[in-house]
Amino acid sequence: MVKDMFLIILWSNARKYQDTILADMQTRFANVKTFEITWSEQFLESNFSRFFEKSICRSEIEKKYGSDAFVVCIVEGNQTKISDAICRYKKIIGSTDAVYAAMSHKQVNRDITLLFGKNIEDLKQEENYKSAELVRIKKDLEGASKWDNLAQLFYVLNNSINYVVLRNYEKLPNDFDPSIHGDIDLLVEDLGKILWSTNAFKMFPEKKTSVAYYVPFCSGNIQFDFRYLGDNYLDKKWERDILRSARRYTPPRYSDSFVIMSPVNQYFTLLYHAYVQKWKIASDYPNKLRQFAEKIGATYKDDPKYSMLQLYDFMNEQNYHVSIPSEKEGTLNWQNIKYTDEYLIVRLKYFFTRELWFYVGKVPKKLKKILSKSF
């Protein structure tokens, strides 16, 4: 991406000042590409909400931005401070909302991907981008209704959010069958961002703590479990390190890519999942663990004590700790945790964060029964 590339949007409430602002842009930037985008009435509220990553109602849209076609300007080669230009445009318009600007490389790429369905590098290869005239497009945000396929979804995620596929990525994206492979587990930096990016909705809306979400596809809904930084699914430091060390993966025979964990984290997170978070190891886990272990020069043994000591040595070296799961994540495999030196500490943490509040909540009921029998 060009270093000095920015994105400026003139929402429809600013269009009457369009000629003045575009003329000013020509004096400030070496290259200005302009697109007029029209969003459908059906997805207007959804488009604005997803773009700004917050719920926006129709009345707010009309007041702040306007509901008609808007102009997207991609500018390069700045000859002035972008912040100075935006301040000038806001003064011309008389509104701080009717003009929008993305100034960081990450934000520009995210916005362009959602708006056009292509990141900036791919968009620059399009004939429309080469036009010197205003290009008119009728298009909602990518995935506004339903996603065409997983490849399309992961393309947007690759260009909009920090995420990693936690496990069972072997059939992604083109050979994944929900009826066979179940759900897709992602670890993301921010839960709100992934929900807005994917258009996901709760699988069990009555359960506030559920991590299960549906993402709509043309072929039907696919279940995703979204884990996020600081959710106690894993030690927060470990979750952060997983996201930092993640790498892009392109399956054989395909050009579509997605993000997976480093080989070391593939092995040890699955070891943790199998022996700490589960009471029974899935039948396919031992074989996967052997394969992951070989990649990092380790040895896997289908033996709880051996595996737990191996896992504990790794976690201790990295300063990771057993995370106390919230109620939505269930309990811990105490039988396996007993093999580590952290057993008593984890037991105490679990009692004070989970069990104590259960008993405190029960006290009033017990007192009521005692009092009722006394009278």
Distance between the termini: 79 Å
Q: Structural class, from helix and strand content?
A: alpha+beta
Helix amount, in percent? 40-55%
CATH topology of the largest domain: Alpha-Beta Plaits
Total domain modules: 3
Characteristic terms for this protein:
375 residues, Beta Polymerase, domain 2, alpha+beta, Alpha-Beta Plaits, 16% strand, 12 strands, 3 domains
Structure description:
The protein is an alpha+beta fold and 375 residues long. The protein has 3 domains: 5-138, Alpha-Beta Plaits, CATH 3.30.70; 146-232, 2-Layer Sandwich (Beta Polymerase, domain 2); 262-375, no CATH class. It is built from 16 helices and 12 strands. The chain has helices at residues 18-28, 44-52, 58-64, 82-93, 105-116, 120-123, 127-130, 150-158, 178-181, 191-198, 236-244, 263-275, 285-295, 304-318, 334-337, 343-374, and strands at 5-10, 29-38, 70-78, 99-102, 135-138, 163-165, 184-188, 201-202, 212-215, 222-228, 247-249, 258-260. It has a 5-stranded mixed sheet with strand order 4-1-3-2-5. Strands 6-7-10-9-8 form a 5-stranded mixed sheet. Strands 11-12 form a two-stranded antiparallel sheet. Strand 11 (247-249) and strand 12 form a beta hairpin. It is elongated, with a radius of gyration of 26 Å. It starts with a strand and ends with a helix.
